[in-house]
Amino acid sequence: MADTWDLFVLEYARSHQQPWVDLISGMYEDGKVDLPFSFMLAQQGDRNVLIDTGFMQGEGSSGFSEKFGVPNWVSPVRMLEEVGVSADAVTDIVITHAHFDHMGSVGEFPNANLIIQKSELLTWYEAIALPKRFGYLTAIIDPDNLKTALEASIEHRVTLVDGDKDNVLPGLHVRLGSGHTVGQQFVIVETGRGRLVVSGDCVYSRMQITGRDNDGVYIPLNNATGCVWDQLKTIDKINTEIGGDQERLIVLHDIDRWPGLPLVKEVEGFKIVKAG
Ligand SMILES: [Zn+2]
């Protein structure tokens, strides 16, 4: 099939004992989870495309991520090297949204074109300029990532997408999915096993789509800067895109760590799986 991609999930970090209710609305009785963090690699011909980048820690990093105490981490750059992709060889990065755990290592890929919603990047420039009393909005935005994006803009390496767009790269489509952030996008990738949807942080759990006890009532997030109305419309947009088939949805923070997808490699306990 023309314009299909090989698509991989690369896990690179895991939090420890995060309360579910901090993530998803109403989950007061559901305890705590070790939440996985991941990004994706899509390959087609000479193109190595990332969907999100993960974040850096330690030497050479901004130190931003350390504030959040994510105890288990392997460099996303190393995870890519484990599948034979050097940072220099990354051609494009589709950024679902600008939270540090999705955009935090964007500075590690000097040749990549960044593809992000115009409303995502510009609202964060606006929000970060607000007085400190608005700090809740930008608590998980690393200012260094915004600086990196501006530098990339000056180098003409940024594509600002305005809403839904097919074929931002051949066989790779983006959809505005406001709610978790203003300009959050989710990504549709044409693969050998059909169209797959990468959630971004539109959902943390499939249950947000199927509803509690499969009652079919969508469940909003508890860590969003956008409104519940937008979040539920976004969940509906994803549900429509997958036609109710959960096998076609890749959740980046999948607490079950992508069951059913073939394992390519395990690196220090972190999985690389083939999604399509
Ligand atoms: Zn997020």
TrEMBL record:
SMART domains: Lactamase_B. The keyword Ribosomal protein does not apply. Keywords: Hydrolase, Metal-binding, Zinc. SUPFAM superfamilies: Metallo-hydrolase/oxidoreductase (SSF56281). InterPro entries: MBL_superfamily_lactonases (IPR051013), Metallo-B-lactamas (IPR001279), RibonucZ/Hydroxyglut_hydro (IPR036866). Its cofactor is Zn(2+). Belongs to the metallo-beta-lactamase superfamily. This is Metallo-beta-lactamase superfamily protein. It comes from Bauldia litoralis.
